C-alpha cells in the first residue's frame, strides 16, 4: 500500500499517499511490536513515538535517543492490521 513510514530517531511519521482511507486499526512493527492507531485519511500524516509500541510481553520497542543505554531496534517492516487483513507499508530511510 502506498503509505510511507519515515523514522525520525525515536518516532515515526506515517503519510497516507494512497487513494484509500484506513479506519482505526492496529499497527505492527517488525512483526513483533504493535499498538492501536487512529484512522488515517487520504493525504493525512500522523506521528507516533516508537516507545509506545509493545510486544506480547509488554516490552517497549527500543527507540534509542540521546540517553539510551542500549542499541536501538531498527524498523525493518511495518504493517497495518485491518479487518480485511495485513497491509504492508513503505519503510523510508531505514538505517
Description:
With 95 residues, the chain is mostly beta strands. It has no helices and eight strands. A four-stranded mixed β-sheet has the order 5-2-1-8, with no helix packed on it. A four-stranded antiparallel β-sheet has the order 4-3-6-7, with no helix packed on it. Strand 6 and strand 7 form a beta hairpin. The mean pLDDT is 89.
Question: What is this entry, summarized?
Answer:
By secondary structure, the protein is mainly beta. Helices cover 0% and strands 41% of the residues.
Strand order of the largest sheet: 5-2-1-8
Proportion of helical residues: under 10%
- CATH level-1 class: Mainly Beta
Question: How does the major sheet shape up?
Answer: 4 strands, mixed
Helix tally equals 0
Give the class from helix and strand content and strand pairing. Answer: mainly beta
**Strand count:** 8
Report, as a whole number of angstroms, the end-to-end distance.
21 Å
Gyration radius, in Å: 13 Å
Q: In total, how many domains does the architecture comprise?
A: 1
Q: Unreliable runs, pLDDT <50, ≥5 residues? A: none
Q: Report mean pLDDT, rounded to a whole number.
A: 89
Looking at the overall shape, the CATH architecture is: Sandwich
Find the CATH topology.
Immunoglobulin-like
Order of helices and strands: EEEEEEEE
Question: What layout of secondary structure does this protein have?
Answer:
Layout: E1 3-8, E2 11-16, E3 25-29, E4 33-37, E5 45-49, E6 78-82, E7 85-88, E8 90-92
Parallel strand pairs: 1-8
Antiparallel strand pairs: 1-2, 2-5, 3-4, 3-6, 6-7
List keywords for this structure.
Immunoglobulin-like; 95 residues; 8 strands; mainly beta; four-stranded antiparallel sheet; four-stranded mixed sheet
